[in-house]
Design goal:
The protein is an alpha/beta fold and 500 residues long. It folds into 2 domains: 274 residues, 3-Layer(aba) Sandwich (Rossmann fold); 216 residues, N-(1-d-carboxylethyl)-l-norvaline Dehydrogenase, domain 2 (Orthogonal Bundle), CATH 1.10.1040. Helix content is 45%, strand content 15%. Strands 5-2-1-6-7-8-10-11 form an 8-stranded mixed sheet, sandwiched between helices. A hairpin with a 2-residue loop joins β3 and β4. The longest helix has 24 residues.
Length: 500
């Protein structure tokens, strides 16, 4: 079969939306699956429905990357968005034509700098992983390119400044998509450190601050990437080879923190996209972390001990589903700052996402590093509920007992701490608990503790939680009682006892 190209699509009589020629208006650091299924998809829809008329030029942020494969397909790739939407199974195909090309700066740094001379370029998007936004003092202006992403961005911004000076409107709206708090502001801090380290001058520093908008953003879409097991069949059906096929869930939501004037240049509302431009993205991040991620962390460990293996099957179990929904609607949503109806709508979408028939989301993969996850995702809801209602949230409290029970391993291997399911159809199955080594060693040292002793040791461990959770009235005794019941009756029976 021929490789995907504009000529191949023309030969097939493809009648979907395609934008072959348009100015490059977006520079994107990051050419991986997520950005192509999220940001580049949104720009593609804006091209079709709102006349954005812009291409995205990609830059791979690390040396090994997808540039050659993307360029071989003229920037084209096929995206499948799959899942449940409004109770219906959806499998939506779209050929994305928003990407013009991909630059490998390690082979052709000048090609990246040349983009700085393009007067049409206005947006910079990026996702260089959580570790990408970091200041590395070893980077120099003369490097080709600088090793760190903020270093590369500073080199690019300086080249822009040299070409256009302080001309109004030639700075950038920078959309940072990395999964760290205040991603845009942290990126700006790193850039300004390089401005100072490299002695680039007060005029350039002023231009960086005044002519560029570093937007912190919240991104939300599960992207499953290249469908390795299905790729051959998919390509046979498509009638062409696509080496950068991409897949993701149908749900998508992007919150951009910045001035409303961004809407004048980014026609998200005209395109009907789930993109919100607001003054503060933090309440939306809180909603996502506490409802979506918090739901995962609060039920998956108990569900695994009860014999389940993937999220979708949990949603088909009446008891586990009710336990999750009770946790979300009765105990998490009342602690959030956004309007209740907004939170309930988001929670309903979460349930549909968890039922996605195209994603086998393994409970064990979600269990990775559950100690820090429980602290970040669930503990704020526990404390918020106690503060608001003056009593313990039953399901969240039980989730802490599920966490302790799941971590109750008996031996340490090179892979992690080895635990064993004791009840349900999977009773007797061993599993591996993966977390930081000191945490695993702590649980191993307490492997023979009774429920009350173990609960006290865990809840009072300030290194784990940043505070002593035994100070929360009644929490320690309630957790110990749940843990004792989990050991004698099983996790499923404990969940059943809690659901209404």
């Amino acid at each position: 079969m021929e490789t995907l190209s504009y000529a191949v699509l023309e030969k097939q009589g493809y009648d979907g939306f395609l934008l072959k020629d348009a100015p490059e208006r977006v520079l994107q650091f990051g050419e991986g699956n997520f950005m192509r299924a999220f940001v580049d998809y949104f720009f593609d829809v804006m091209n079709e429905k709102a006349g954005f008329n812009g291409k995205v030029v990609l830059c791979q942020p690390i040396a090994p990357g997808l540039a050659d494969m993307i360029n071989a397909q003229e920037g084209l790739y096929t995206l499948f968005l799959r899942g449940f939407e409004n109770g219906q199974k959806v499998n939506q195909k779209r050929v994305i034509s928003s990407v013009s090309r991909c630059i490998n700066p390690y082979q052709d740094f000048d090609a990246l700098l040349e983009c700085a001379k393009n007067p049409d370029l206005r947006f910079i998007s990026c996702n260089t992983t959580e570790a990408g936004i970091a200041y590395d003092p070893a980077c120099n202006l003369e490097d080709r390119p600088a090793a760190s992403y903020p270093g590369k961005l500073t080199q690019f911004l300086y080249e822009r400044f040299k070409n256009f000076g302080s001309e109004k409107g030639k700075g950038f709206i920078i959309l940072s998509c990395e999964l760290i708090d205040n991603n845009g502001k942290e990126l700006e801090k790193c850039v300004l450190k390089y401005v100072e380290q490299w002695k680039l001058g007060a005029d350039f520093e002023k231009w960086v601050k005044e002519e560029n908008i570093f937007c912190s953003t919240l991104v939300d879409r599960i992207v499953t990437g290249y469908p390795r097991n299905e790729a051959a069949d998919i390509c046979n059906e498509l009638g062409y080879t696509d080496n950068v096929l991409d897949t993701g869930e149908i749900f998508g939501f992007w919150v951009i923190e910045g001035p409303q004037s961004i809407k004048d240049e980014l026609p998200v509302e005209k395109a009907g996209l789930p993109i919100l431009i607001c003054d503060d993205h933090k309440p939306y991040k809180q909603r996502k972390v506490r409802i979506l991620n918090g739901a995962h962390t609060s039920f998956v460990l108990g569900a695994y001990l009860a014999g389940q293996d993937i999220v979708r099957d949990c949603m088909n179990d009446e008891v586990i589903n009710k336990f999750m929904n009770q946790t979300i609607y009765d105990e998490i949503i009342p602690t959030l700052t956004l309007p209740e109806e907004d939170c309930k709508d988001f929670a309903a979408a979460v349930t549909e996402r968890f039922k996605n028939p195209f994603i086998d989301h393994a409970l064990l993969s979600i269990s990775l590093n559950s100690t820090s996850k429980w602290k970040a995702r669930v503990m704020p809801s526990l404390k918020g509920y106690v503060e608001k209602f003056g009593k313990l949230p039953a399901c969240i409290t039980a989730s802490f007992a599920f966490y302790i029970a799941f971590y109750s391993g008996q031996s340490l291997s090179e892979e992690g701490l080895v635990g064993k399911r004791t009840t349900g159809a999977q009773g007797g199955n061993e599993y591996t608990i993966k977390d930081d080594q000191p945490i695993l060693e702590f649980y191993l040292a307490h492997k023979d503790d009774d429920a009350k002793t173990l609960t006290h040791a865990v809840a009072s461990n300030v290194d784990f939680w940043g505070e002593d959770l035994t100070k929360i009235a009644g929490f320690e005794d309630a957790v110990a009682a749940y843990l004792s019941d989990i050991r004698t009756k099983g996790a499923y029976e404990v969940m059943k006892s809690l659901v209404k």
